[in-house]
Amino acid sequence: MQTTLAQIGFGEAGSTFARAGQWGAQAVAFDRDNACGAAMQAAGVEPAANAALALRGATLVLSLVTADQAMLAAEACAPFLEPDALWCDGNSVAPETKRAAARAIEAAGGRYVDMAILAPVEPARLAVPILLSGTAAAEAEAALRGLGFSKVRVVGAEVGRASAIKMIRSVMVKGIEALTDEMMAAAAVAGVTEEVLSSLDASENARPWAERAAYNLERMATHGLRRAAEMEESAKTLQGLGIEPVMTEGTVLRQRAAATKKERAA
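RE: above sequence
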């Protein structure tokens, strides 16, 4: 079978997709880490000794490397792309990085697609939500669905739009994780973990995020100065427990800035 798919990077995402899709002989993979060869063979994917061999004959490329290697991968692979090959950049990087990578790919005759993966690849696998943007996004959507991806959506023709959605969303998703770590560390030292968690359960009021965002912003604008003062005391509480209040101090700044902005507008 002629190779049509190249995988650049075979870490968690690349290996998970290959196993779930059972792409077999239609896929060739390359990873700078030679230890990935065994995982490629276990997934039924042919390992390539270098990027040039992986890209030979490939009409679709999935770039799934680490964020710090995304731009380097695009620059290194661009000279070996087949004419009009689709380069789907699924790495978690800023829109500016995606646009720079697009210039490298398109200068070499490839077609760049901004691909944003919105959730952990396990356990979703090929059902993980994916956003695409770029002039070739519609063709990439069809190609990815042909590989078995079931939740793919085009969000625009501009490279950077898909990644902007993902990276801005990550401010909340990863921020909540960081806040959780800060809260739980302090609660554990203070010996009040169970009470803190149960009080959060009691105050939980699920609502659509559009409503939640509007409500939160209004509360900050109206009560930001008072809340900033309260959070300064929360920061002191954490410091007294030996916990560095990194996230809490950021909350102080945001609350105060929101209230100050409203005062200036008035």
